[in-house]
Every structure is written in C-alpha cells, then in structure tokens.
UniProtKB/TrEMBL annotation:
It catalyses: GTP + H2O = GDP + phosphate + H(+). Keywords: Cytoplasm, GTP-binding, Hydrolase, Nucleotide-binding, Ribonucleoprotein, RNA-binding, Signal recognition particle. Its main location: cytoplasm. Residues 266-279 form the SRP54-type proteins GTP-binding domain. Involved in targeting and insertion of nascent membrane proteins into the cytoplasmic membrane. Binds to the hydrophobic signal sequence of the ribosome-nascent chain (RNC) as it emerges from the ribosomes. The SRP-RNC complex is then targeted to the cytoplasmic membrane where it interacts with the SRP receptor FtsY. CDD domains: SRP_G. PROSITE patterns: SRP54. It is an enzyme of class 3 (hydrolase). This is Signal recognition particle protein. GO terms for molecular function: 7S RNA binding; GTP binding; GTPase activity. Composed of three domains: the N-terminal N domain, which is responsible for interactions with the ribosome, the central G domain, which binds GTP, and the C-terminal M domain, which binds the RNA and the signal sequence of the RNC. Part of the signal recognition particle protein translocation system, which is composed of SRP and FtsY. Pfam families: SRP54, SRP54_N, SRP_SPB.
Length: 440
C-alpha cells in the first residue's frame, strides 16, 4: 500500500547526512506513484508533487540534519493542506430549523449517514431533529429510515412512495416548524449513476427547502470514481460539504485528497462503520497521517527532537537491536517519556501501534511514575533483568515491598511486555525504529 511504499522510499534517505536534488527527485517519483496507486486523482497528484518538490529542494531539507524526516514532514503538511488544513463545522441556520439535505449515489450511505448525523447532533448538542423520508423509489428505503428513527427515538416524516418528494419535503418542513425541531435531515433518493432525472428532482427539493447544508455522501471505496461523482454533484447542486463513508474498509483515503482538491468543498465527516455511532468529524491532519500510515509520526518526531537525549536514544536503539531491554531500561524510558507526555499517547504515534488493541488498556499516567519506580526497585536485580521470573508469589512480594496493590504490579508488567514487543517490532521495522525517529 501507499504507506509501505512511502516508508520504503523514506528509509533510503536514512543515514544520509546530506540529500542531493537528485535524491529528492527520486523520492518524489516514488511518492507520485504511491499516490496514484492510492487512487488520488492525476491532476491533484501532479500539483501536489510540484509543491512538495519545490519545498523539498529548498534549503529547508538539503541543509537539514534530518533530511528524511524533513521530507516526510513536508509531505505530511502538504497532504493536510490539500485536504483543507482544519476541520469545518456544520453551517447552522440563524433561526431553527437547520436544514440538511443528504445527496449521493445509491448505496453511498446517505440513509445511514443521516442516522449517524442525528446521533452525533443528539450527543453533541442534545438536538431534537426530524428526519424526512424523501426517497420514494424503494419502499425499503422508507422502512430503513423508520427503523433508524426508532433506534434514535426521533420522528421520521414520510408519506409513502406515491407522493412527489418535493411535496413530502414541504409537508415535513411544516411539521418541523410546528414541532420546533432544531434540525431537519432530508434523506433523498440515489441512482447508480448521475442522471438528469435525479438531478432535476434534487434541484427541486433544494429550491423548495433552501437547505443550510447539502451534504454529498460518497463511498470512499469507489476510488477514482468518487472524485467524478463529487465533481458531478457539485456542478449540479453546489454542495456545501462531503461525508466520506466506509473508511473502516481498507481504503487509504486517497479519495479524501482528491475530493477536497477537485470540488473545493470541505469534507465534514467520515463514516467508519455501519453503527450509528460510527461518524467522526473530519480532521485533515489525521487523514494525512492515515494516508501516510504513520500514526502521528510527525508529532513524535517533533517531540523527540525537542525532548530526547541523543545519547540515550543511541543506547536504546542498541538495546532494542540486542533485544536486551529490561526493567531498568523501562524506568529510564518512563523518565524520558514523562517529559514527552502520557505513555499511551506516545505509543499511539508509533507506526503500526495506532491500531494495536493492547494499547486500549495502556493507561500510563506520568504521575504514576514514582509508584512504578517503587515497584521496579522492589524487584531483585535478577528479576529486573529477567521479567519471566515474575510468578504470582514474587509479584505479591514486590507489591508488598513497594506498598502498591498487586493489580498495579500486574498492570506494569503487562505494559512492560507491550513495550518490549513494540521495541522488537520497531527494531525489525522498515524505518529501523527509534534510530530513524531520532535522526541518527
Ligand atoms: P444509501 O443508498 O446512500 O442511502 O446508502 P445506505 O445508507 O442504505 O448504505 C448502504 C450500505 O452501506 C448499508 O449496508 C450501510 O450499512 C453501509 N454503510 C454506510 N456507511 C458505512 C460506513 O461508514 N462503513 C460501512 N462499513 N458501511 C457503511
Ligand atoms: Mg437510502
């Protein structure tokens, strides 16, 4: 995938004290191919590469001590920029109700996303929305929306399949005004492709409802096609934003990059599952990291550059390679990490760790460092070096010695083991772990 390719490319620069213009050109060729493979639109890729190359051959990189990191950083920053830099909030009407019209091709996720958006609004601002069923072509579509309405306990306005959708919307809006609903979400019909009949109907609904938002729902799995769909809908309806669905699949998010660049319209939300809670506000920086497949690598690099003692990084790298990371190193590490931030936050930034289920339980508060130290110091030297010795009775003895509950001892040992595993992974990984991160 894209991330593996990029990491491989970047690793070529590892250890180079100076990068030449030829190095940068070569890298950019790889980045270009990688983006195209991830379904990023051709023109978008071209412009993107041009921008990154200009920045990269500037003194910014060539004279830097950490050229590979600098290039990754530039690629990341530019990706973020292409996707709009910051999250964009919903347009709210000055006077309720705020009217949101969902549009998109059949199967893109309009109905599901309407439900998700209701759930989001309920959770975020205790909203009292009304859903309008304006997809009259399939009886199942109305039932689907009714089911979602029941789940969320919000009213769904429908008039079956025999009434013109524009009329349904008109009546639905009247009801919403009477009932003082603060949001109205209009679920419209889709087709397999953009056609004039569909667009006429959507335009008529738009003219009547005067929505504050026309959210185009796009299936991220459709790759390049997603961009064309977005262009088409935007030309015809002048959409106000995009919901990119099905990002829980193995898509890398290339569509996100192209859609924003081609339509100029912000992606406002992403769908990441079939459940009604699976909707997130779109953050360009996070998507850039996702596309690069690097967790929050940039932040980690920056933190590391600031806080990390190079000497210690070197020692740690060696330990990782020798596989001799023990509890003494663990305490050293924690002391370093305490300067950088909470443990689980740091670990999440490391490539391949972001989705590690083990991390869900890793709650290391740097304030607990003193307790952890007490636990480690209650171990014998041998125990510190050979954690496998730590059977239940030894753990009990250590807990008593440190004056900490046994669960804490167990948790620490678990975290230590996670860290050990991570170290092993990193020392085998493409980027050659810490060494790469620390710019050695
Ligand atoms: P519509 O025709 O545009 O209204 O699309 P639907 O809302 O009926 O969704 C079509 C299918 O996609 C359904 O099976 C949904 O459960 C599924 N779906 C929608 N959004 C997502 C998502 O973000 N992730 C996943 N995995 N499935 C989704
Ligand atoms: Mg639908």
């Amino acid at each position: 995938g894209l991330s593996e390719r990029l990491q491989k490319t970047f690793s070529k620069l590892r250890g180079k004290g100076k990068v030449t213009e030829a190095d940068v050109r070569e890298m950019m060729r790889e980045v270009r191919l990688a983006l195209l493979e991830a379904d990023v639109n051709f023109d978008v890729t071209k412009t993107f590469i041009k921008t990154v190359r200009e920045r990269a051959v500037g003194s910014e990189v060539l004279e830097s001590l950490t050229p590979a990191q600098q290039v990754i950083k530039i690629v990341n920053e530019e990706l973020t920029k292409v996707m709009g830099t910051t999250a964009v909030a919903l347009n709210n009407a000055p006077k309720i109700p705020t009217i949101i019209m969902m549009v998109g091709l059949q199967g893109a996720g309009k109905t599901t996303s309407a439900g998700k958006l209701v759930h989001y609004l309920q959770t975020e601002q205790k909203a009292r929305p009304l859903l309008i069923a304006a997809d009259v072509y399939r009886p199942a579509a109305i039932e689907q929306l009714q089911t979602i309405g029941q789940q969320l306990q919000v009213p769904v306005y429908d008039e079956g399949t025999q009434v013109d959708p524009v009329t349904i919307v008109e009546h639905g809006l009247t009801q919403a005004r009477e009932q003082k609903n603060d949001y109205v979400l209009i679920d419209t019909a889709g087709r397999l492709e953009i056609d004039t009949q569909l667009m006429d109907e959507l335009r008529r609904i738009k003219d009547l409802a005067q929505p504050n938002e026309i959210l185009l729902v796009v299936d991220s799995m459709t790759g390049q096609a997603a961009t064309h769909v977005a262009e088409g809908f935007n030309e015809q309806l002048d959409i106000t934003g995009v919901i990119l669905t099905k990002l829980d699949g193995d898509t890398r998010g290339g569509a996100a990059l192209s859609i924003r660049a081609v339509t100029g319209k912000p992606i406002k939300f992403i769908g990441s599952g079939e459940k009604l809670a699976a909707l997130e506000v779109f953050h360009p920086d996070r998507m850039a990291n996702r596309i690069l497949g690097m967790g929050d690598m940039m932040t980690l690099i920056e933190k590391a550059e600031k806080d990390y003692d190079a000497q210690q990084a070197e020692t740690l790298t060696r330990k990782m390679q020798e596989n001799s990371f023990d509890f003494n190193d663990f305490v050293d590490q924690l002391q370093q990490v305490q300067k950088m931030g909470p443990m689980d936050e740091i670990m999440k930034m490391i490539p391949g760790m972001a989705n590690n289920p083990a991390l869900k339980n890793a709650q290391m508060d740097p304030q607990d460092l003193e307790h952890l130290k007490a636990i480690v110091y209650s171990m014998t030297l041998q125990e510190r070096q050979e954690p496998d010795l730590l059977n239940p009775s030894r753990r009990r003895r250590i807990a008593a010695g440190a004056g900490r509950p046994i669960v804490e001892v167990n948790r620490m040992i678990k975290q230590f083991k996670q860290m050990q595993t991570m170290m092993q992974k990193m020392s085998k990984g493409n980027l050659n772990g810490m060494e790469q991160m620390m710019g050695n």
